[in-house]
Amino acid sequence: MYNTLIHPNRDIPPTASAGHHITLKHVADKPLFEEVGPTVMGYLEGAVIVAHNTQFDRSMIPETGSTVDLLYRLGRHLWPDDAPAFGNQVLNTG
Question: Which of 14, 16, 46, 94 has the smallest number of Cβ neighbours within 10 A?
């Protein structure tokens, strides 16, 4: 098992921090993905990745194979007219 925060090498929008409570202060001394990527990708080899929003996740990490875009699509299916948005910070309010 491997667990680390990764410095995104860009700003973390306030709306994202509101959902996951991680700010640039929390990742200031953390490695960039380029530094830990080979280790992470080794763990992901052959795995099915369950993602909230595959389009965004793909912009952050390289292709890993099979991905299931479960949460975002499920939210759009269950609450097509009721949710103001479908990001984690909106859907994860329970």
Answer: 94
